[in-house]
Amino acid sequence: MMKKKMGLSALIIFAILFSFGLGAIAAPKLTLLFNNKQQKIDVRIINNQPYVPLYSIVGLFGGKVTYEKKTNRYQVTSKDFNPHPSQAKSYTVNVMGASGPMKITINKVTVDPAYKYDPYLPPIKAVVLDVVVENTSSAKISWHPAQGIFALNTGEQIEDALLYSQNVSGDFLGHTVKKGKIALPVHGDLERVRMVKCYIHAAFDEQLQPVGEDLSLEIPFR
Predict the structure, then answer these.
(1) Binning pLDDT at 50, 70 and 90, where does residue 42 land?
(2) Does residue 106 sit in the same domain as residue 144?
(3) Collapsing DSSP states into helix, strand and coil, what is residue 165?
(4) pTM of whole model > 0.85?
(5) What average pLDDT does the segment 201-221 reach?
(6) 58 lies in which domain range?
(7) Per-residue confidence band for 51, with pLDDT thresholds at 50, 70 and 90
(8) In degrees rounded to 5, what are phi and psi of residue 22?
């Protein structure tokens, strides 16, 4: 009787182990696709969550993983991380122009690799002009310096400065002044930028008639 019980127990244990083995064999192999391309990276499911090796997944994004033995921690560095980012540099200038009764003065140029034009959006590389715009007449005049066309000495042309600039354009009541910044987003190398050229359409009155000429300015700053 004892032998029968032992034999039955052994049979049950064997059946359980065999069923686990079948489950392991039947489990499909997981694969990882990155940008629609299959990767040779081991994917495992632990507690219903997929896991992949840290070094492998960071490497796909061009990053780097280092292990610090003293602190017993891993450091992940992204591809475009710069531990010593360039600082913004400002240059004093004194460039003035006018379109009829409307006057503009540019008194500072700042080259900023991380210009924060909006607290809720990522910073941009930009050349920022500090400007003062004044209506010297008693009439209501409209002028839009931030909607001008800007060009850099590097050959880059900028036509969307209004999106990143402060309110230095629009309607001006008589004898009013607006001060603010016109930010020029730059896609190229900021260190090569030495001069800004700008073309601003003429100011106009309430009847949409021009009250001055189109304005062209050159702003060398370094």
Answers:
(1) confident
(2) yes
(3) coil
(4) no
(5) 97
(6) 29-81
(7) confident
(8) -65, -40
